[in-house]
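Sample A.
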Amino acid sequence: PAEPLFRSGQTRPELQSTTADSYAKAFRLPRAIPGVMIDRSPLSDGQLYSMVSSRWTSEITRALKSPASHSLSLTLTSPMREPGFRTTVKADGLTPEAKSTKCELTLWLVEDVIAPQETAKGTESAFLHHNVLRQELIKEVVELGKPYVKDFIFPADAGIDRSRAKIIAFISDVNTGRILEARLQSFGSSVPSQPDEPTQPEEEKQKE
């Protein structure tokens, strides 16, 4: 995932995260933002992290077009009137070698947040920040090929808007740390997440 990891002391209070701080420290990320890390793998220039925005589309396209080694499904059962929710995750290898990989599953609770943002045109008072990391729910080794089911209580007292909240699930190689596959599911959708089709950089330009 190329998700925002806002760090305390670098951003507005409503976007801060001590969990993001710990990740930034572990990966020795520079204090300047924004920047991207993709799958925790080296980019085309051999660096782990990039702050050159003009390269991001091509780097993401390159990662998306790489053959998948693992599959991952995520289902979120979340009755809006109930405090609890259930996540069901199933990961598997697509080749005999991949099936033998020892994998770790991580679940993040993220939120879309409206907060001011400095842009080239000045301060935008109602900027939509997507997938701001709120909590790391679990991080543990899972057995490939078998469903992993876990129940949680939504942290309503943390001031998180459930209608804007989502769960991100990803599996990583225990030995290398590389993220092998990821899924995202919103609390407001009953449709299981699906991988996006990669687009070419020129297609992105046509959308702008």
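Sample B, a different protein:
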Amino acid sequence: LGKKQEALRLMGEALEELSTPQRATRLLWLDTMLRTALQLGDIHATAHLSQLALQLSWRFNNIRWAAQAYLHLGICARMLYQTNPARDHLLNAQALAERQHDDVLRIESWLQLAMLALDDGQRDEAHRCMQAVDAILESPQPFPPPTSPHIVRSHLARIDGRWADADRHLQSARSDARRETSGYLYARNLLKEAELYLLAADDEAALR
């Protein structure tokens, strides 16, 4: 983690040296920085960097980057239990992703909206969001979404009392997380798995 924190600091210093015309580089570096901050678990830094990215995106009329910035702002707000701001950011991300026909961002925004609905106890709304995800997944995807759909499906299965399905989906999500990311995000998936086992009264598996 120390190396990532140092990289984040150096990128921040380098960002200050870039001139305004180097807009693509500024946005790219901001995106790298906010993703690194998120992996480190620094939610407030991620939100700050996402806000900067959003401002630059609108200044340079870059709709896709704006959608990504809204998405990360929504993720941060959800992690900070700020339900209404999270929903507003994620709906903005979803609308811009639709406008850009960006399937990866469309899927990710719907997944985050589904998780927000689950956080708020809105089971039917979560199911509706996952139906939108499934409709997009029917077509071939060039890249997998950052969040595994199995995470949401595991929660829905748990709510429905389908423990075997919940466990199967969570194991798939764990495999996706190990392959796609590391650090804080992977740790959050492990915590979700422990939570599932505890709810199933499987104390020994949870402690593993």
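Observation for Sample B: Confidence is low (pLDDT under 50) at residues 201-208.
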